[in-house]
Amino acid sequence: MTSTPRTLAEELRTRTDSGLVGLLRARPDLLNPVPGDVTQLATRAGTRASVIRAVERLDRFALQTAEALAVAPDPCPFDTLGALMTGDAGDAAISAELPRAVAALRAQALIWGPDDRLRLVRTARELLTPSVTHPSPTGLGPTVAEATSGMSPGRLQDIIAAAGLPATHDPVTAVAALSALFGDRGRMTALLDTAPAESVAVLDKLLWGPPYGGVTDRPAPHLQWLLDRGLLIPAGARNVVLPREVALHLRAGRAHHTPEPVPPALAPVKERDPQLVDNAAAGQAFTALATVEELLKEWDLGGPAVLRAGGLSVRDLKRTATALDTTEQLAAFWLELAYAAGLVASDGEADERYAATPAAEDWLQLPDHARWAALAAGWLSATRTPGVVGTADAKGRALAALGPHLDRSPAPEVRRRALALLADLPPGASVPATAVLARLRWERPLRGGSPSAGAVPGPAAPGAGQATGGPSYAASPAGTLPPADDLRSRLAQWALTEAELLGVTGRGALATHGRALLDSAPASDVPTSAETATAATRAAALLAPHLPEPLDHVLLQADLTAVAPGPLLRPLAEALGVLADVESKGGATVYRFTPASVRRALDTGRSAAELQEFLTTHSRTPVPQPLAYLIDDVARKHGQLRIGAASAYVRCDDDALLSEILADRRAAALRLRRLAPTVLAAQTSPDQLLDGLRAMGYAPAAESAEGDVLIARADSYRTPPRTAPAPVPDGPPSPDPGLLEAAVRAIRAGDLAATAERKPLHAAPAPSSGALPRTTSAETLATMQAAVLTNSAVWIGYVNADGAASQRVIAPVRVEGGFVTAYDHTSDEVRTYPLHRITGVAELADDSA
């Protein structure tokens, strides 16, 4: 091999194992499946799909460097690339960062070759090279040679004559002379000094792109002056283009309008007391727990129906938002948060509806900080994005909460990166969201925001229209780089808002437990669900001291209300929620006792005495007399009427009361008639009869077929066991170190098998490089037996049971029974091969294995 690599594969062979590991870690799509050798690795690294994924993950300056290489000569010396990035004036910051950008491109195998001969991978050059349908982000047009291809020799001679150049004998030398003129700073300056002012204005309009403009059938004199000298070249019947060499001269050699060698600073920084931040985040975390708990309580007996296409209807979302006392967009967030944590799901029945899962019961019994850990772990790794609820999909249909098509695979990475930027600040410090978004756009310009700052379109020149297409990838044809949108920015905005709602941040700053939440996986780029859950548990332990302690008492007041001065113990909160209605929330929760709420408590089987004892036990103030009277009064009437199934009937020992009901006009809808002095029959269901009589002010009780009172306990409806939704990965998963090490060994071994020098057999010529050896069965057996005796390695072609062919270098140990047992250098293990699957064998020129 020569000292200078001639191909990307040759350069990859010179890389160390750690260099190949870095390449495979940066581009995990190259591992599926593991390449058989370095040549396969290089080929796969140059495929369009793989290159697009790699280019999408470049930061802004590395992308600008690749764009400059795309418009530079191929190969391009490092000094030439530096001149394109810094211009004639030079820039110390760009010069300092350019080696880093080149190293990043080289590490991802997007460029190769020594510094004096840098080559951009051909596929990347095709993606980034400008054309009429694919304008470059640099705003540069084609070279003089490209723009004049197809131009008649006579027209070329006219151009060089008008430019003051001597005539040439052929078009090639004419183009070379014109290119040399445009690349000569002194001669170009002298030529432009003679240009009319209007002509210079036209060049200024097209300078930073788009380089294409429209002209009329009869160009104005100042445009004709440019066309005559090749400063503008026709690009069709009514279009012209500014040659790249002319634009670079006018730009003082710079390929980009605004190179960005360093990321934008996270500023301005606002300092706060970390303790205040932790307290604010803890308060919001407690609110998040209360909101999710209220959602589960709202759906305790079964939630809304599932749409046929999946998800929650707009009406049900509004109803849920009203119940949670929030907006529809925030209600969608709480729904998706509970869904991501596995707390709500569809029941899968014929009449499908949403409900809490069995896991919700376990979650409700956990301490507050452990419940927060479950929510935080689900949120951090979820790809479902509630921010898109209400927007339209590709077919114009509105996306529904809990419905399909809400997954956005970059969401977890953007979420983590946004929080990591906050973690880089001092404890308690915060920055505006715009600063975080600007940094994220710089880090992944093609995955959200403008793909490059290099193109600054100007208004149309007089007599020249704007170029078709713009200075981005939005107009790129199929198969080129995808259009850049603002999804990443929107994901980051949603992540910051959701982190505040969940209590990961407080007042815009990352809380102490929020920092612990990010410490998930020091050994891998993307943590697993288990690693995220472990980190969330550690974060919850830091959050626990800041959460309020639950109380075991309330304060009863004479106006039939009870005040809970803080969070209540769960059994007390559940019992009080049955006996009274929540009137207001906040730092203190106010409960109001009403006849309906007391009746609801009596329906659970409690007596008036038990309710009185419950209030006496859990109140720091005496039970007010109005409340005691209310409980006794409702209890005295409770169950006086009995309702069972006929269609339905009403039974009462007081026939005067039944007569009163029959005479009441409000009972007309129930269609009652007297069957006996103490029995009324109805043509409605027992449930409708119960609701109707209660609406009339009575307190009926349901009874069984045996005549026993049915106790309405707070039994909850739960779905069958459900798992939380699995995140949708953003491309191949990050390989673990063990897989990377094994893959590199396999690639090295396969490369050895493909490139080792072989001894030709007497009966057949040596196979060409990359082709499987072909020998007869007798020759294969004889060569194997000889290799066992001499303890030497051989090169074989092998076809496995699936029909996949491969080359291997093996050291045979034993040959018997139609099988050869050998140490396989390719897989680094001892394996047994059927002789009939070996296509051929050849000795190595020297035993280099």
What's the short story on this structure?
This protein has 849 residues and is α+β, with helices and mostly antiparallel strands. It contains 33 helices and 24 strands.
Descriptive overview:
- The protein has 849 residues and is an alpha+beta fold.
- The protein has six domains: 8-128, no CATH class; 144-231 and 240-250, no CATH class; 274-448 and 487-546, no CATH class; 555-637, no CATH class; 642-702; 756-844, SH3 type barrels (Roll), CATH 2.30.30.
- The protein has a six-stranded antiparallel beta sheet. A five-stranded mixed beta sheet has the order 16-17-15-14-18, covered by helices on one side.
- Helix 1 (8-14) packs across helix 3, helix 13 packs across helix 14 and helix 21 (411-423) crosses helix 23 (487-502).
